[in-house]
Amino acid sequence: MTRSSTARFVGARDALTARLVEEAGFDGIWASSFELSATRGLPDLGLLTMSECLDAAIHIGEGTSLPLLADCDTGFGGAINMARVVRQYEAAGVGGVCVEDKVLPKRNSYLDGDQELEDADVFAHRIEAAIRNRSDKDFCVIARCEALIAGRGMDEAMRRAHRYVDAGADGILIHSKRRDPSEVIEFLRRWRSRAPVVAVPTTYNRWGITDAQELGVSMVIYANQTLRASVHAIRNVLSEIQLRGEASTAEDSIAPVKEIFDLTRTAEWEERGA
Ligand code: SPV
Ligand code: MG
Which of 72, 112, 224, 225 to mutate to test the pocket of ligand 1 (most atoms within 8 A of CB)? Predict the structure, then answer.
């Protein structure tokens, strides 16, 4: 297992997945809007409400002792909504929130087509409201800069990132959908470690944790790999059962029932209720 001072967070859409992430030795959980939407069979187009996302985050948190960073899309409205987001997520024991500078309803960053950015001052005001409304300064508020995703260039990304840290953000998630890490590396070079940086190496997935660490990245998020893994695993087992007309050969590629008993701490619960 690679040990790193760069925290490695992984997307988990439910408590059981979060438990698997913890078991594998990662550092934290990303409650991804993409994963939570997909779990409901919905596209990641800002359709989920704050209560739905908060409820999911609470359930995910019940499965793990790892810190949880909640993807709060654009903050579910304006500064006043952001104030409520922070109060509610903090009260629920979530470690922090991440909000992105797009307009509501946002579109997933990997979708083709236009991405509409929020006005930088309007978004900075939202960050200020978030900071003002936390009661614990360790509750983390990450501002996600989508300027590169929206094709607005590095100067705009830098301008926005500085504006958001001026507004009080604890860190910047700089998002890029290039297949190589060049944009993120250029951002880091110009940023000069002014505040912690979070990266999401989904498309530039050959960028290893050691490289990220050497360049001073504070956190990487493997945002959606567990969701995508489960889609293929489920499809494979279903087609195996369809093909054979029975489930015996599928057994080799699925978890034994006992493993699920163990993962859900069945013995511990029976003891509690004894
Ligand atoms: C998510 O996982 O919901 C994210 C990250 O926002 S991404 O889908 O990579 O934009
Ligand atoms: Mg998201």
Answer: 224
Specify whether the backbone of 145 is left (phi greater than 0), alpha (psi in -120 to 50) or beta: beta
Each residue's pLDDT tens digit, 209-232: 999 999 999 999 999 999 999 999
Judge if the beta carbon of residue 224 lies within 6 A of ligand 1: yes
Check pocket membership of 142 for ligand 1, CB cut-off 6 A.
no
Answer yes or no: are the C-beta atoms of 213 and 4 closer than 8 Å. Answer: yes
CA of 52 to the centre of ligand 1 (A): 17
Q: How far is the CA of 17 from the centre of ligand 1 (A)?
A: 17
Residues with active-site annotation: 44
Percentage of the residues of the chain whose pLDDT score is greater than 70 = 99
DSSP state string for 114-170: --PBPPHHHHHHHHHHHHHT-SSTTSEEEEEE-TTTTT-HHHHHHHHHHHHHHTT-S
Question: How remote is the CA of residue 271 from the centroid of ligand 1, in Å?
Answer: 39
Helices 15-23, 50-62: axis angle to 10 degrees equals 50
| Residue 228 Cα to chain centre, angstroms | 14
Position 2 confidence tier, pLDDT thresholds 50, 70, 90 = very low
What are the residue boundaries of the structural domains of the chain, listed by start?
Answer: 7-223, 231-272
Report the distance separating Cα 201 and Cα 207, nearest Å: 7
- pTM of the predicted model as reported, rounded to 2 decimal places: 0.97
Interval 25-39 mean pLDDT: 98
Architecture per CATH, domain 7-223, reads as Alpha-Beta Barrel (3.20)
